Amino acid sequence: MKSFTQTTSLLALLFLLVFAAYLDSPFSFINKNYSYTATASKQKIAKPVTAAPSDEGPDLVEKLEKVEKVDGYFVETYQEYEVYKDEDGKVKKEIPTDHTETLKYWDYSQNYGE
Question: Which domain of life does the UniProt lineage start with (predicted)?
Answer without folding.
Answer: Bacteria
